[in-house]
Amino acid sequence: MAVNGARRNPRDFWEKGRGTGAGAPRPLGGVPSGAPRASRPSRLAVPAEPRPTGPPPRVGGAVAALVVSLLTLAVPILGISLGFWFFVLVTNVPGIGFGIAALTKIPDEAAVERFLRYTWACNLAYVVLSVVFLVPVMVLALMMMMAGF
Fold this sequence. Notes:
Helix content is 53%, strand content 0%.
């Protein structure tokens, strides 16, 4: 449905009226007919600074790595609640620090990727270290149950 033949842009339709004269309704904040109109930038205008050519940084991956790092705090908390103070030694502080650093470096894609790799490496090392600590604790608990403590 053509509104006025030559007018195809919806913005022109609302700014110039519906073609019924001066009494045409205008949206709130519209430009009055006597006020000068601000010129719109051309679609072909070159931006002042070049746009990045690569893909955007992986913000979702950085957030996921930080969330996993924060979830690893459950192991030291559980260890402390069971009375094993040495579980504090396996807190994933480097993983949390690298995750925060990845999120603070958002505009720099290379830095985000680098800290993202560091965070996931710390998370993997933390899981391996937790298993190393968990196996002796489980063996100790099993021996205590067999002995009747």
